[in-house]
Design goal:
With 324 residues, the protein is an alpha+beta fold. Helix content is 65%, strand content 10%. It has a four-stranded mixed beta sheet with strand order 1-2-3-4. Strand 2 and strand 3 form a beta hairpin. Helix 2 runs antiparallel to helix 3, helix 4 packs antiparallel against helix 8 and helix 5 crosses helix 6. The chain is elongated, with a radius of gyration of 25 Å. The N and C termini lie far apart (54 Å).
Length: 324
């Protein structure tokens, strides 16, 4: 139990915050739906339940992935967060299906303009504000993940959107879900206004379908990202960065192999460099230690396997386009 509590303390904090916030929002929306029977509110309730479940899984998975390697699992548990998220998409997919199905039913049999207009608007307005707060936290966590904490103001939005691919899996999921949730609440509000003040009473049904499709988009992104994580995907951007500063070391003649593998929130680096055949073993060892320290200082790198060989005078490292 003590070990479990210690692991939970290391879980992704934005995911935990988003889980708690979305659980509160889901309860509020569910109460409003049972009172009003509004289909757009139903869609938003399903959306918030899905977000709550997903973010709970993210928090638990990110915490358990910090568990130290054991004799049975010598490679550690870093990819566990990817496996947990692959399971979570099933829940979100079911909720997305139900949301679309209910929207189609509403379009084929649209009811008359409903009552409880201000209750629906108030609940969705509060939900949109709360979701925006969580989204702002997720944006700031993206900046932390990519090492740009110094960005402030409106630039937080632009920089986080531009660099979302570089965020940790848990942060990326919270970001995507809350961005879609904020947009979904706004879409639901607009649809209720249209259905109430015009004769287009099916507007809420179309809103429900649109929200369901956005949920499926989240499902697709989560599945593709985490399936790649489970299989083991290379971080090409980090490979280019490491390759560049390794070649800045004057004693390095070539790079035979450089591979940076993502495992959950961790990066594992394998590197083999070539030195001048006349270099002493002591000098080569000093150079390798310096390169290893520099790589370990990179954000997310937890393991470095580095080897050396004599220069074969055949250039193996192609480098980046900029270097070429």
């Amino acid at each position: 139990m003590k070990e479990l509590l210690g692991l939970l303390k290391q879980g992704n904090k934005p995911a935990l915050m988003a889980c708690i916030m979305n659980a509160v929002i889901a309860i509020i929306k569910a109460i409003a739906f049972f009172i009003t029977g509004n289909v757009a509110m139903f869609a938003e309730t399903m959306h918030s339940i899905g977000d709550t479940a997903n973010q709970f899984f993210v928090f638990i998975g990110s915490a358990l992935s910090k568990k130290s390697p054991t004799n049975r699992f010598p490679n550690g548990f870093a990819r566990l967060v990817n496996l947990v998220l692959l399971g979570a998409v099933i829940i979100v997919g079911i909720l997305a299906y139900e949301t679309i199905r209910e929207g189609i039913h509403h379009i084929t049999e649209p009811p008359a303009a409903g009552s409880w207009f201000w209750l629906n608007i108030a609940v969705l307005g509060i939900a949109a504000i709360l979701e925006a707060i969580v989204l702002n936290k997720a944006m700031k966590q993206v900046l932390v993940d990519i090492g740009k904490e110094q960005v402030k103001g409106i630039n937080v939005v632009m920089v986080s959107l531009k660099n979302i691919k570089g965020a940790k899996p848990a942060t990326k999921l919270v970001f995507l879900e809350d961005m879609v949730a904020t947009l979904g609440a706004i879409i639901a509000i607009v649809s209720i206004v249209i259905a109430t003040y015009t004769t287009f009473h099916a507007a809420e049904g179309y809103a429900s379908i649109l929200i369901g499709l956005m949920l499926f988009y989240v499902v697709a992104r989560i599945f593709l990202d985490n399936a790649a994580g489970v299989l083991g995907v290379a971080d090409e951007q980090m490979e280019e960065k490491i390759g560049k500063f390794v070649f800045e070391e004057k004693h390095v003649k070539d790079i035979q192999k450089l591979m940076v593998m993502k495992e959950g929130e961790e990066l594992h680096v394998e590197l083999k460099v070539e030195f001048d055949p006349d270099m002493s073993i002591a000098k080569a060892s000093d150079v390798l230690e310096g390169i290893e320290r520099k790589i370990l200082n990179e954000r997310g790198v937890t393991e470095v396997i580095i080897e050396s060989d004599k220069d074969d005078e055949i250039l193996s490292w192609q480098g980046t386009e900029e270097e070429n």
